[in-house]
Amino acid sequence: MSDTQARLQRILAIGERLAAAIDADIKALEKGRPQEMKSIEPETQKLSLLYEKELAGFSPKEAAGMPPELRARLVASGKRLNDCLERQQRLLKRMRTISEGMVRAVAEEMQRRQIAARPYAPRPMAKPRPTAAMVYNSVV
Fold first, then answer.
1. pLDDT tens digits, residue range 81-98?
2. What is the pTM of this model?
3. Left if phi > 0, otherwise alpha if psi is -120 to 50, otherwise beta: which for 10?
4. 61-78 CB burial, b ≥16 within 10 A, e <16
5. Which of 11, 36, 79, 131 could crosslink 28 through cysteines, CB 3.0-4.6 Å?
6. Torsion angle of C-alpha atoms 38, 43, 47, 48, degrees rounded to 10
């Protein structure tokens, strides 16, 4: 086996491990347990950096000389990885939107209760600072 083929086999193996980790992330997100995500583990992050480094070091000349079956496997592996990443990204965006909405709802409810609990005063009181800014920094 040539050096190029060995590198391709290594890239394929790393890609499969990354795809498996992202699949585990998707399952954890679907269960509502983001703390069980594998992509936040240091080993998975090292794998993704190694994958990027290996692909960046792969020259067009080497790509042109690779056997068709390895090229097909590499393309399929890359497509699977991209599909997993897109699905993970969609789920993460949904989770973020939901959690930001929950924070906003809690902040608005706190503010509503604070305003309702203010006693009547014959002269105007200083305008209280809204609690919402403390909770979500008025970004949402």
1. 999 999 999 998 998 898
2. 0.70
3. alpha
4. eeeeebeeeeeebbeebe
5. 36
6. 50
Contacts of 77 (CB under 8 A, 6+ apart): 11, 12, 15, 16, 19
Mapped onto helix, strand or coil, the DSSP state of residue 94 is helix
Instruction: Name the pLDDT band for 70 (thresholds 50, 70, 90).
Output: confident
Residue type, 62: E
Six-digit token string for 112: 């509503």
The conformation of residue 32, written as its DSSP 8-state character, comes to T
- Residue carrying the six token digits 């993970």: 88
Q: Are 9 and 73 in contact (CB under 8 A)?
A: no
What DSSP designation does 137 have? T
- Alpha-carbon span 5 to 93, nearest angstrom: 38
Our CA angle for 57, 63, 64, nearest 5°, is 145
One-letter identity of residue 92: L
What are the boundaries of each domain within the chain? 3-88
| Residue partners of 88: CB distance under 8 A and separation at least 6 | 22, 25, 26, 29, 39
The 8-class DSSP code of residue 33 comes to -
